[in-house]
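Example for tutorial group B:
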């Protein structure tokens, strides 16, 4: 494996660094975007219970806000519960945008790696082909097998770039879809709580 990487030339270095960065982002996003962390089960039920018992003071709201992304959205709405339903909904939507931005952290970088990986590989191949044809011009065609071997070495960077880009693209799309799903679910849960607090929905959570 080391010999293959070595034969790919200096363009293998940015490709390897990109693969390490992509792997780190994928692992971090898998850890951060666990459903139980983003949408804790029974959180809306617990908040409704605290509201019914008149225990939603500033300290409780602060704990709720820092507990999870869903807690952040709920706390934003509950902090303005005395200003009417429309204001609560606006605050929930604003906080939802903040949470979405936070959950999309590093995804732009992952998407960039997915787009740039094949280009880095192609650039390495172009440099390799330039070296091969420069050598041909200087020393002649010689043995055709040597030429074929040189071309195969030049193509190593393209293969490496695609190997990095394809998983990066797959996980980028996966995480984007996951974030969209979480945002929809969070807003639905928060609006359900708003309806319950204003008597527009039965408190069946």
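The residue assignment follows.
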């Amino acid at each position: 494996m080391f010999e293959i990487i070595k034969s790919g030339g200096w363009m293998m270095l940015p490709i390897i660094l990109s693969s390490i960065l992509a792997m780190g982002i994928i692992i971090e996003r898998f850890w951060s975007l666990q459903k139980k962390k983003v949408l804790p089960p029974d959180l809306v039920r617990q908040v409704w219970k605290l509201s019914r018992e008149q225990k939603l003071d500033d300290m409780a709201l602060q704990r709720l806000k820092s507990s999870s992304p869903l807690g952040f959205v709920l706390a934003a709405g509950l902090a303005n519960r005395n200003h009417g339903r429309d204001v609560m909904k606006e605050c929930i939507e604003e906080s939802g945008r903040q949470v979405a931005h936070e959950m999309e952290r590093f995804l732009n970088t992952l998407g960039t790696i997915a787009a740039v990986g094949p280009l880095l590989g192609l650039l390495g191949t172009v440099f390799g082909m330039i070296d091969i044809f420069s050598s041909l011009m200087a020393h002649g065609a010689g043995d055709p097998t040597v030429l074929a071997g040189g071309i195969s070495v030049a193509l190593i960077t393209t293969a490496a770039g695609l190997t990095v880009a394809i998983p990066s693209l797959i996980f980028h799309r996966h995480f984007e879809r996951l974030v969209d799903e979480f945002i929809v679910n969070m807003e639905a849960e928060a609006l359900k709580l708003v309806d319950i607090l204003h008597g527009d929905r039965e408190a069946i959570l």
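The longest helix spans residues 156-197. Compare this with the pattern of hydrophobic and polar residues in the output above.
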